[in-house]
Here is the input.
Amino acid sequence: MNPNSELSAALQALIVRAEHALDRSLPLSEQSPNELHRAMRYAVLGGGKRLRPLLVYATGHAFGFDGRTLDAPACAVELIHAYSLVHDDLPAMDDDALRRGRPTCHIVFGEAMAILAGDALQALAFEILANEVGQGSDGATGMAMLRALGRACGAEGMAGGQALDLSAVGRSLTLDELEHMHACKTGALIRASVQLGALSAGTDTDTRAALDRYAHAVGLAFQVRDDILDVEGESAVIGKTAGKDAAADKPTFPSIIGLDASRARLAELTDVALAAIAPLGESGALLRELAHYSANRSS
Here is the structure.
């Protein structure tokens, strides 16, 4: 199933824009080192929800900013996301052979090349964002954007969340501990996506705080839904190995609080997200749609 078929025409058009921008940002396969460049393109251009670039675009659009201004931060967050998936799938991490309905990067290109591809994608994300910052944004805003992205993928964000995830295998976590882990591992880059869109649009401090509450709730809701799909979904539909978390004895929302309570938490988080952006009115339509999508998606 195409995960993006559940989205409106407006968001699907933004996905097409993101796909073109990502394609332009990546080195050509014919360029040396060819195998590395092929692995990078395989990791990025093999489909996916594109939730993070959509959040950049939707946030910017809520304040009247167009796609051209937002292409660089949209690409940057998706490249960071792609790199994290390549590394997460490695045998030393989650050890998965299926991603987005295809063999994972290390299965196709080998572990060493997959590691290098992830490293190169992370570096490219910062290069793209720095280039855009140098051409358009003022110095303070540009530094804030780079800082937000760096924090999201470092020890306070994805890397730290992955470390907590690895150490949690076989252990019983409290709900607060689980939510903190996923706020780092999954939520940090989702929050950064909204932050980059807000910074690009020049929003004020109070507005950015409200948008951060929205993004925090959406990030957790996305993970709760992921955990539910790991129990109820089918590999062919969700595009990755169903039941993998339970088989690996990893703590999840359903394993800690049960499916019914997980669904209730999902609804609660969605309400928090929608309340945070209610003052935007019709301008927040795309952000509202993405909140509902994160909570109700089928893959």
User: Anything to note?
Assistant: The beta strands are 98-99, 102-103.
